[in-house]
Amino acid sequence: MNKFQGTGVALVTPFNTDGSVDYNGLKSLINHLIDGGIDYLVSLGTTGETATLTKDEKKKIWAYTAEINNNRLPLVAGIGGNDTLAVAEDIKSFDATGYSAILSVSPYYNKPTQEGIYQHYKYLSEVSPLDLILYNVPGRTGSNMSPETTCRLAHDFKNIIATKEASGSFDQFNQIMRDKPEDFLLISGDDPITLPMVALGASGVISVIGNALPKQFSDMVNLCLAGDFKTAIPAHLSLIDFTRMVFAEGNPAGVKAALKHLNVCGDTVRLPLAKISDSLEKAIVAEVEKLSQLV
Predict the structure, then answer these.
(1) Which residues are involved in binding pyruvate (predicted)?
(2) Which end of the chain is more exposed for a tag (fewer CB within 10 A), N or C?
(3) Is residue 56 part of a domain?
């Protein structure tokens, strides 16, 4: 489980200006993150604009990501949905070469009961060749996975090893930390609250802003994990404005603008997402310049 301690980054999917997948940009991004000192990569989570990728594109991206990573860091694949049988088939047909785990979002739109959520993950755990990381993000799914359901799954299935929690509820985090198995990981799903979550006992974060600022963000997380909050707090506070700007007009358009400025990859997104406004882009660029001088 130590492979999922620290900073994971949910990779953006770079696109060419014609909307096709930019594999050179993806290679550049992967190397940028590894050079920046992050701990593991997450391919095709929400930040990867998975909803607008075809099945064939997903397979090619997963395979290419594993090829470029070349076992340098642990790899996680995002495979989720709101049709349990379809997700199970995607997991069973997934080429797991080079991957260590699957991140699977709680079913969205359907608004299942807690028992429905439990049975969904039970089914996936029974067919998955890899360990599973739960993903609770009520702001996107329209339903919340309760702490009781999270811990019930954690206790009942040994291959359910962690949860990425993006509920924003510290009451929920408290309950998970109290009731989970000792080796089950609580992972922050929100960049701005990673520091207090690690202080509570979280193992780290799956980050968005880490795409652009891997060293700055992972250094802060490492300080937290080492218990050096006196040094970590100023680093955390220095990232507040950048984080707010990156999410101001949607994810991943904001972080892609930063990556374009850093010459890592372009800022093209697929509809229905749109590029950020010129004024916000200028503000993000100015903040990136300021933060780059602090490294």
Answers:
(1) 47, 206
(2) C
(3) yes
What CATH number does the domain containing 193 carry? 3.20.20.70
Cite the annotated binding site for pyruvate by residue number: 47, 206
Q: Domain count of the chain?
A: 1
Specify the DSSP class assigned to residue 106. P
23 is catalytic: no
109 is catalytic: no
Bridge-based pairing state of the strands 204-207 and 131-136: unpaired
How confident is the model over 5-25, as pLDDT tens digits? 999 999 999 999 999 999 999
Q: Residue 283 falls within a domain, yes or no?
A: no
**Is 274 a domain residue?**
no
CA distances from 284 to 8, 191, 259, 261, 272 (A): 22, 16, 10, 9, 22
Task: Please tell me which residue in 58, 164, 180, 256 is annotated as part of the active site.
Answer: 164
Model pLDDT for residues 18-51, shown as the tens digit of each residue: 999 999 999 999 999 999 999 999 999 999 999 9
